[in-house]
Specification:
Blueprint: E1 14-15, H1 22-33, E2 37-42, E3 51-55, E4 64-68, E5 74-78, E6 93-95, E7 98-100, E8 107-109, E9 114-116, E10 135-141, E11 144-148, H2 158-161, H3 166-174, E12 179-188, H4 193-199, H5 205-208, H6 210-214, E13 217-218, E14 225-226, E15 233-241, H7 252-260, E16 289-296, E17 300-305, E18 309-319, E19 322-331, H8 340-373, E20 378-379, H9 386-408
Length: 409
């Protein structure tokens, strides 16, 4: 792995058609989403044998089940009966001894094996011991559960996929107990890359979010770091508190949350540090560090925020001009909050994050409507948007590799 690229970079224009072209979209699905590792949930979401979740992959593939077996092992399967294709589990999550299709009653255990076949005498060709739900590659990193939909062996292990961040970020996310505080999911009428783009640059904060967040943070002096040789880690950038550049003053509520709590998105928190050693995320060891934003192929942004917070965002394609977007927030504070002060600070952050997302989504849908008319043929990316540019380049490398292999077969 070569050293990461930092500082000034040569940024070429990129085709605007990447956000609406049907051919490019299908290439992204086949070459990127169906060939690389996909972030689905936390290991903590499935603590006990029999615990499961189901997950809709939308245009990426058939829905899946992730379940913890009696042997404590996590396994992933397509949520699809091998009889005639119905889902075998309707619930979003729960605890089961197995999964029963409600169409004809075929039942599979937690390891995916067929254990009950009504009127089995009429299926002489079916050997229950050999009949299984279709398995999906499953592994964990940093406390998160990932799947890979490729039919053969993945080209990279999950650890290889996230180099050079495998160890440092894996320890930050996996060695600490993170509690989910809140989250949002929305269907947005835009290409999946548009909300992802908005997450991996803060250049737009001052213009789009002047009252919700833009007055408190600045990126001056810190250019993004790009991992051009990594298959899955795109790059990162750090932000720091720069109140001297603020265009708005914090509201009384915003000021209060940073005085009594340890979450400061507007001005730096005055509460004691909770993260302890922040060397994995505060790469430049700045006392005014605020956030570090990491981008990963294909659709995940992970952002340690403030002193004890972590945000994760995923964008799932539904079509060239439609996606589902998820934002999940975690804290090292046990949940639910143990006192009113913690609850107050958490709710203030929750409602503010909702407002930020609303400002983003309405803007992104307007962009998508403009793209359909196609008068602008290419997009500019500035140096503060180098992670956005690198994401597009890395997606294209995966597509080129996929098409080259297909041409040889």
């Amino acid at each position: 792995m070569n050293a990461p690229e930092t500082g000034k970079q040569t940024l070429t224009k990129l085709p605007a058609s990447n956000y609406y072209c049907e051919t490019h979209y299908q290439n992204e699905i086949e070459a990127v989403f169906r060939k690389t590792w996909l972030n689905i949930c936390r290991e903590d979401d499935l603590p006990n044998p029999g615990d499961f979740i189901t997950y809709d992959l939308h245009d990426v593939g058939a829905p899946i089940i992730i379940a913890r077996g009696k042997d404590q092992k996590l396994r992933a399967f397509y949520n699809m009966c091998t009889h005639r294709g119905n889902v075998v589990e309707m619930a979003k999550k729960g605890n089961r001894k197995g999964f029963k299709c409600n169409f004809h009653g075929w039942t599979f255990d937690l390891e995916g094996q067929l254990v009950a076949l009504p009127e089995q005498q009429y299926f002489p060709q079916v050997d229950c011991a050999e009949e299984h739900l279709v398995t999906v590659h499953c592994d964990t990193w940093g406390g998160f559960v990932y799947i890979n939909l490729c039919e053969g062996e993945p080209e990279w292990t999950l650890a290889e996929f996230h180099e050079p961040l495998t160890e440092s970020m894996g320890e930050l996310m996996g060695d600490r107990k993170w509690y989910r505080t809140h989250g949002y999911q929305a269907t947005v009428n835009c290409n999946w890359k548009l909300p992802y783009d908005a997450l991996i640059e803060f250049y737009h904060f001052a213009a789009l979010h002047p009252k919700t967040v833009g007055g408190g943070l600045s990126l001056k002096g810190f250019m993004p770091t790009i991992f051009s040789d990594s298959p899955g880690s795109v790059g990162f950038f750090e932000s720091y508190y720069a109140p001297e550049t603020a265009t708005e003053s914090p509201t009384p509520i915003q000021e209060l949350t940073t005085t009594i709590g340890n979450f400061g998105l507007y001005v730096q928190s005055k509460a004691p540090k909770a993260l302890g050693d922040t060397s994995a995320i505060n790469q430049f060891d700045r006392p005014d560090w605020g956030t570090t934003t990491y981008a990963f192929i294909p659709n995940v942004c992970i952002m340690p925020v403030g002193l004890n917070g972590l945000a994760l965002q995923r964008a799932w394609p539904i079509g060239p001009d439609k996606c589902t977007f998820e934002i999940l927030f975690y804290s090292m504070e046990p949940q639910p909050p143990s006192d009113f002060v913690k609850l107050f600070c958490q709710r203030a952050a929750q409602y503010n994050n909702r407002d930020i997302a609303s400002e983003d989504f309405s803007t992104l849908e307007r962009i998508q409507r403009n793209l359909k008319r196609a008068p602008v043929k290419s997009f500019h990316f500035g140096m503060e948007e180098a992670v956005n540019h690198a994401l597009q380049e890395q997606i294209q490398r995966h597509i080129d590799r996929h098409l080259a292999r297909a041409a040889q077969t």
